[in-house]
Amino acid sequence: MKIDNNKVVSLAFELFIDHEDDGRVLVEKATTEQPFLFLFGGSGLPEKFEELLADKATGDAFDFTIGFDDAYGDYDESAVIDIPRKAFEGSEDVLVEGNRVPLTDSEGDEAIGTIIEIADDNVVVDLNHPLAGYDLFFKGTVEAVRDASAEEIAHGHVHGEGGHHH
How high is the pLDDT of residue 161? Predict the structure, then answer.
C-alpha cells in the first residue's frame, strides 16, 4: 500500500540539523520498535515532509533535506517575549529553563513556548518552533502504511492499539 491521504504511516528515521557550534546533530530518532506514526494529509507536519513521502510504500527508504523555509520557517527574534512571572502563579512547577509550556493570550489564542530565562519579575519565553531556522535532514524507512479508521480521520490523528487514548 502506498502513502496517500487518510493513510496511517509508520516511519523509522533519524532527523539531523546542522548546529552552528556542534556540526550535524541528531535531534530525533524513531526506531522500528518505536516508530513515528502520523495521519498523512492531516498531520500538521510541514507540507514538504508529506510531499517527499507521498507514494512511498512499506519497505521504501528515504533520504531527503527540507530547507527551513519549507519546514518551520526562519527564526524570529521578535517571537522571544517577556511574560510577567505572576502569570505563572499556581503553576510555578513549570518554571524550569528549557520547559515547553502551553500559553494563552488575552484573546484566547494558544501557543507553546520554551522557557529560556527565569528572572525575579518575568519569564523569557521563545515562541519559535524548536527547529525554526534549521534545515532538516531525514534518513529512514517506511515501516508500514495502512488505511486510517473513520474515527482517526474524524479526529485528525492516529489512535493507539485498541482505539482512542486521549
Answer: 62
